[in-house]
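Sequence, please.
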């Protein structure tokens, strides 16, 4: 029996192979720093990494935890991770990992997310029975998939990984949803381009380095930080009240649960600042009201696309 005749068995072996958590060194060409990403070469994270570090050696990892561990342990020089999508919202796991590791955000960039239906060369649309991609990508193409009821949506660990699998299995009854870069990288064919429901689809990515290796940017106009405060009346309001008084513009606030302490939260904030002194003043203003304050990074705000 061929793999295309029984995709469930093939996928089981595929997932088992992907659970190896050791980063693959020097997997993509480049002369610069080693940059870890979660997912495969040709993914949106791959595109963002090359946008931030054009001569990077890209190191793909299976899990986000592997990406941060590779940075913290010095296996790679940096990592590029998605932190927020304009439609799907925040990548909560990456907030937790930023807090858990001694790393700093160095830069950010925005990437337009354009989804494409990718098949083996020569495959026609009426042959497709299954469409593989990351769950977020599938959700962002819900209307397209609804118009093609014959296609079953199948969640996969990575957009580019779904193309890699498609080519490896040579399954003419399957397709993948991924970037144009993935199509070119693995030799697939874009059958339909721009199949996402909403064209206003952007992802914000962070370039992250070990705190010891981070370099201060004199042009930084944005700060990311995390803090926790006591769960008592007025404490959170008091912690936040100083931002406006200092002339800082809070652009994002996110809460995440403190593990092991039900109904207690960490708060993550992005804030526009006009000088390093204001960034320092924000951190100082938080200290009296917070049990913990951690600076996650200072960097230049990405240009709006």
């Amino acid at each position: 029996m061929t793999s295309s005749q029984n995709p469930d068995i093939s996928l089981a072996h595929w997932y088992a192979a992907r659970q190896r958590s050791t980063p693959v060194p020097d997997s993509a060409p480049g002369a610069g720093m080693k940059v870890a990403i979660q997912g495969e070469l040709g993914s949106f994270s791959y595109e963002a990494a090359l946008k931030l570090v054009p001569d990077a050696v890209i190191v793909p990892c299976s899990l986000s935890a592997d990406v941060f561990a590779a940075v913290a342990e010095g296996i790679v020089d940096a990592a590029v991770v998605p932190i927020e999508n304009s439609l799907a919202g925040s990548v909560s796991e990456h907030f937790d990992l930023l807090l858990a590791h001694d790393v700093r955000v160095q830069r950010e960039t925005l990437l337009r997310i354009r989804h494409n239906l990718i098949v083996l060369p020569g495959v026609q649309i009426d042959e497709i029975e299954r469409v593989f991609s990351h769950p977020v990508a599938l959700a962002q193409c819900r209307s397209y998939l609804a118009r093609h009821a014959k296609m079953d949506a199948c969640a996969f660990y990575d957009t580019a990984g779904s193309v890699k699998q498609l080519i490896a299995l040579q399954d003419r009854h399957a397709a993948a949803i991924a970037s144009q870069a993935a199509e070119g990288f693995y030799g697939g064919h874009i059958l339909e381009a721009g199949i996402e429901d909403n064209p206003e689809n952007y992802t914000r990515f962070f370039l992250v380095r070990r705190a010891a290796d981070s370099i201060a940017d004199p042009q930084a106009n944005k700060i990311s930080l995390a803090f926790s405060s006591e769960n008592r009346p007025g404490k959170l309001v008091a912690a936040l009240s100083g931002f406006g008084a200092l002339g800082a513009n809070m652009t994002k606030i996110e809460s995440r649960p403190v593990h092991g302490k039900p109904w207690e939260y960490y708060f993550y904030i992005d804030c526009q600042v006009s000088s390093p002194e204001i960034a320092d003043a924000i951190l100082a203003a938080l200290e009296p009201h917070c049990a913990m304050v951690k600076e996650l990074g200072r960097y230049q705000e990405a240009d709006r696309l």
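DSSP finds ten helices and 15 strands in the chain.
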